[in-house]
Amino acid sequence: MGLLVAVGVPAIQIGYVILVEHLLSLLPARTQRTLRPGLWLAPALAFLATFLIYPAVYTVYLSVLDARSAAFVGVRNYVFAFTNREMLIALRNNLLWLVCFTGLTVGAGLLLAVLTDRVRYEAAAKSIIFLPMAISFVAASVIWKFVYEFRPAGAPQIGVLNAALTALLPGFRPVAWLVNLLTNNLALITVGVWVWTGFCLVILSAALKGIPAELLEAARVDGATEWQVFRRLVLPSLSPTIAVVATTMVIFALKAFDVVYVMTNGNFNTEVIANRMYKEMFTSRDFGRASAIAVLLFGATVPIMIANIRRFRQQEAIR
Amino acid sequence: MARVQLSGVTKKFGAVTAVNEITLEIPDKQFTVLVGPSGCGKTTALRLIAGLEEATAGDIFIGERRVNDVPPKDRDIAMVFQNYALYPHMTVYDNMAFGLRLRKYPKTEIDRRVKEAAEMLGIGMLLDRKPKQLSGGQRQRVALGRAIVREPQVFLMDEPLSNLDAKLRVQTRAEIKKLHARLQTTTIYVTHDQVEAMTMGDRIVVMKDGLVQQVDTPLNLYERPANLFVAGFIGSPAMNFIDSALAEAGGKLFVDAGTFRLEVPADLVSQARPWVGRRVVFGVRPEDIADRALANGAQPAWTIKAGVDVHEPLGSDVILYLTAGAHSIVARVDARTQAKMGDNVEVVVNMRKMHLFNPETQQAIL
């Protein structure tokens, strides 16, 4: 089957091109020139239309229908999305993810990029920090479930975090990290940060290496302290990269799902929008509400993408 | 303003010694050029003075202060970098004001200094631009301006003209010279270009393999090179070196190159006499060789017969690549010469400008 796909897909592509070129050769040269780009683009556009635009439009359509997509209900599903208690918790939590997850991944990535840049064992340090990227979110969640494991006070602590804290702090009472309403959201976000910091690190580190050494030396000779060099030169030079990385992280924060699904399944006030959507879709079988939530999520990313593209264009303009 | 002193300064990068026990004094207000081929340690020496590299051994003084452990920002120096190193996200004004702002100068003072320097460099109308919107020559001026406004004790310049085109380089060369005459700030200037060194330096430090070869005024370097390296490095086309022996015949000394013999002038005989009967390297600059047909009062004892391999007319004069026996000789002769490729010519060597070197130590004999 795999072989069939590996051979078949390129064969179809090449076949299409040969066919199109053959048909074009029958036409006058000028017509050829006007038609060719369109015909070459057509398969890609058809692909996009089928698998991206059509589902998106169809989802919007479903979002104004009822649970079984039988009757038009207007904005009722959207009213639900903004008033339902679970949904409000999910919206609050996503906001928390947006701020904490993005802030911590980008912040830690930047800090580590600057710090690793100055040590001899840079490659080793970066590899270790990047390593969690290679693990799936589900596996990461399972690992962290062991870290957060809770046993009542007095019983042997098998969770790393509680074990360490009870051993180090006399009189420390073990915390059920994933149940405690003060800690559980941050505990989940920590898992996300653990996985994604490495990504931010490598991208920011690459950008950091791109700043000419002469520039930093010039600032040092000009009288800047190391902090001023960072604040007045490194940070502004990195800002386009930081924007790109932060955007990526914001989108991941909005899409947060696997960690929550595996570790708490949204219980104890840890619900997020994507998990809510999953539940409406596959547990409650309410296509209308699920679609409305999907549109909501989609809508939230659009302004971020627009801001990103605009920024990119500005940079191209001054190049 | 201050003098700069290096004493026994060494810099090693792992097993490589970039600068090897340099002892050097750069007097106050002087324009000193460090020159040498790439990898000779001149830039490292400059970076040691700037504090961008830490010396492995030795002491560095700026003024009366030992600065080995002083960070660059506190050395009161300003540096102009090869690639200008302008801050890309700042305007020209902000680039120039950056160092003053960090030092918390009052706004009016910063404004006065920036405007004054901009005026001096003719970049007054560019103050609101970003470096990307400037040409290479303009960026160069901004980099200079950034150094000037600081009014430091010492200017350090690391090949600041190497990214400019030939015409602009010559023009900027003169401007930097003028600027120095006006500001009188001690300047250390690094270049690999011997013409730049000769035209700009009050004094030139010639370096090779991390060692100082000779420190002298441009004219003395040209006329009295201390060794074969300096002799070959300064001057273009380079000095001719001919393996010879020093012979004595009839009370006169001769440089004997096998295919030709040239008489040593009487006033140099006493210095050359100890070398009679030994191998020497005879050196003569191309400009001290003339076409005999055009030379006044040509000396028969200073004449070489040679074949012309290549004839390069430069307009003002002609470069002839000659062969005399096994020796290749370059001569810069009068433009009126009739010599053409393939001809046999007679050229006269001005033996009063001759040089002799010890082939083993490569040091100058005279």
Question: Which helices and strands occur, and which strands form pairs?
Answer:
The complex is a heterodimer of chains A (319) and B (366).
Chain A: H1 2-25, H2 29-63, H3 76-83, H4 85-116, H5 122-130, H6 137-148, H7 160-168, H8 184-209, H9 213-222, H10 226-255, H11 258-263, H12 273-283, H13 287-318
Helix pairs in contact in A: 1-2, 2-13, 3-4, 3-13, 4-8, 4-10, 5-8, 6-8, 8-10, 9-10, 10-13, 12-13
Chain B: E1 4-13, E2 16-26, E3 31-35, H1 42-50, E4 57-62, E5 65-66, E6 77-80, H2 92-102, H3 107-121, H4 136-148, E7 154-158, H5 166-183, E8 186-191, H6 194-200, E9 203-208, E10 211-216, H7 218-223, H8 228-233, E11 240-249, E12 252-256, E13 261-263, H9 269-272, E14 279-284, E15 289-291, E16 303-313, E17 317-324, E18 327-334, E19 344-349, E20 355-357
Parallel strand pairs in B: 3-8, 3-9, 6-7, 7-8
Antiparallel strand pairs in B: 1-2, 1-4, 4-5, 9-10, 11-12, 11-14, 12-13, 14-20, 15-19, 16-17, 16-19, 17-18
Pfam family, one (chain B): ABC_tran
Domain ABC transporter (chain B): 4-234
GO molecular function, one term (chain B): ATP binding
